[in-house]
Amino acid sequence: MSKYAAGKEVLSYCGKCKLTLTHIIVSMKDVNTIGKVECRTCKGTHAYKDPSSKTKKVRKKSSIPGGRSKSMSVNDLWTQELSKAKGKPKAYSIRESFEVGDLVDHKSFGPGIVQDHVDGKIEVLFQHEIKTLVHNK
Ligand SMILES: [Zn+2]
Hints:
The chain is mainly beta. It has two helices and nine strands, in the order ββββααβββββ. The longest helix has 11 residues, at 74-84.
C-alpha cells in the first residue's frame, strides 16, 4: 500500500505561495507518484513538487558521458561508487587487466572505480573527472 492517495495531505512546494505548504492530493500518476495537488493556502491546483528535491537539485550540467545521472556531479558519483565498491584497490598499470566495478589506485588521479569497457580501454571514475585508460597490454 502506498502512503499517498487522492484526498490525503502532503507537503508540497507551492509556486504561488513560494513556500512548502500542506496540500491535498488531487490525483495520482501511479500508486507511488503524486500527480496534482491543491494548495490549502491559495487553493491553487498544480503539479506536485517534492519540497526535499527542490533544494538538492544540482542544476549544473555534469560532464558524465551518456548523461548517466544529470543531477549528480562527478564528485558525488565518485563518493557514491567508492562507498559501494568492495575489495582492495589495484595499483593502476597498463599491464593489469581491470573489470567493471574494480577499484583502481592511480598514482596521478588517486582512487577510482572502473565504470565501463570502451574499445579495449577502461573508463575510470576519479574524484574530479572520468578518464579513459589503457589496460591489459
Ligand atoms: Zn499556494
